[in-house]
UniProtKB/TrEMBL annotation:
UniProt key word Hydrolase: yes
UniProt-listed Enzyme Commission number(s): 3.-.-.-
Domain of life: Bacteria
UniProt keyword annotation of Manganese present: no
Matches recorded under InterPro entries: Isochorismatase-like_dom, Isochorismatase-like_hydrls, Isochorismatase-like_sf
Top class in the EC scheme: hydrolase
Organism, scientific name: Pseudomonas azerbaijanorientalis
GO MF term list: hydrolase activity
Cross-referenced Pfam families: Isochorismatase
Signal peptide interval: none
UniProt keyword annotations, A-Z: Hydrolase
UniProt name for this protein: Cysteine hydrolase family protein
Length: 185
């Protein structure tokens, strides 16, 4: 792949609440390290970074605004000059002005990382692809949780992650490793 000089790194929901034990077992224990490697690279190369923060409408959510879980983890805190998008649904494009901001800035290539793979990452990547953005998802810089399917069958976080990436790859986005993104620059 060719990483454009203005490719935007979109980091989804790296808030304190995502570490809450009640969310259950997760995959990709090194996902945050991969995200931080990408974030460091984006900052060093002065590319745009967009931090997405979920502000839940549900009081029992780990992202409910009136408690600490809604806050960014310190290691993912936005720096001056980096954009902040606040959303109330999984899709970072829905009612946030993100598309308009990207178009006004002339940004056409998006690299998406964060959580959860099957939820906000997949939802945002689908919309990005549908809107015509050159969309990339770093598979090892995302994670998700064990989840039951519609019929009540339990699936491991690894299976949920793999299925979600399979839904995206080739239709809405290109799925690659973080190392591939760093190597090609």
């Amino acid at each position: 792949m060719e990483l454009k000089a203005n490719a935007a790194l979109i980091i989804i929901d790296q808030q304190k609440g995502i570490l809450h034990p009640r969310l259950g077992r997760r995959n990709n224990p090194q996902a945050e390290e991969r995200m931080l490697e990408l974030l460091g690279h984006w900052r060093r190369t002065a590319r745009p970074v967009i931090h997405v923060q979920h502000l839940s409408r549900s009081e029992d959510s780990v992202f409910w605004p009136q408690q600490s879980g809604v806050e960014f983890q310190e290691r993912f805190a936005p720096m001056a000059g980096e954009r902040l998008i606040q959303k109330q649904v999984p899709d970072a494009f829905c009612s946030t002005g993100l598309e308009m901001q990207l178009r006004e800035a002339g940004i056409g290539q998006l690299i998406i990382v964060g959580v959860a793979t099957h939820n906000s990452v997949e939802s945002t990547a689908r919309t990005a692809g549908n809107l015509g953005f050159d969309t990339w998802v770093a598979e090892d810089a995302c994670f998700t949780f064990d989840k039951a399917d519609f019929f009540g069958h339990a699936h491991s976080a690894e299976e949920v992650h793999a299925m979600s990436l399979g839904n995206l790859h080739g239709e809405y986005a290109t799925v690659v490793s973080a190392a591939t993104l760093l190597m090609d620059d």
